[in-house]
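Homework help board

Subject: predicted structure for assignment chain

Our instructor gave us this sequence and asked us to write out the predicted structure in token form, then describe one feature. I got the tokens but I'm not sure how to describe them. Can anyone check?
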Amino acid sequence: MKAHVLQHVPFEGPGSIAGWLGERGADIGRTRLFAGDPLPDPASVDLLVVMGGPMSVNDEGRHPWLAGEKRSIREAAERGVAVLGICLGAQLIAAALGARVFPNPVKEIGWFPVRAVPAPAGSLGLPAACEAFHWHGETFDLPPGSVHLAESDACRNQAFQFGRRVIGLQFHLETTEESARGLVEHCRDELVPGPFVQGEEQLLSAPASRYREINEVMARVLSWLTGGGAAPTGA
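My token output:
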């Protein structure tokens, strides 16, 4: 398997996804968009993973590479490449497929439940409920022709599927203790009190078992997306 990670800032890497890919002997490429690395040829990739970041998909004036990234994501989706977007990555997929990305009514930062919503047969089946890690202030409309997969109290559109091989997750299942600390270190100024914003101490006090649980769901999502397993309905 040839996997490629699109990374927008140094401190938001693939987390547990890297271990899952490594265990399967995947050839892993990486584009550090913040460093000016070139985008991959979508025809050469089996799995494209689009990571998060603090910028908006609408910030093309500040980050001109966003325009090319959206085109590359759309081409990958049209070619039938497996595409997984996380947080900003999900918003980039939505924008690439013609949907609007805009500020959510509230910021959602910390550990909050995500609920699966009814979806057609053959769709990715997320757990009925999952205490996931969140760090976002924007949301998206569902792309035309996509399937709504999940919601939370703070954000209606938490996950969607486009076709069989494109998944957008507004929340984080790949987060590790290390990556959570990195987000806090670099984005601490966003921890402004709000109804869905946890403080630093609460955010970082999650037990190791909680990270294992979300990483296991991430593994099952990846297995389903790449054709190697069933939908992750058992968590």
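Reply (TA_rk): Your tokens look well-formed. For the description, you could write something like this. DSSP finds six helices and nine strands in the chain. That's the kind of observation they're looking for.
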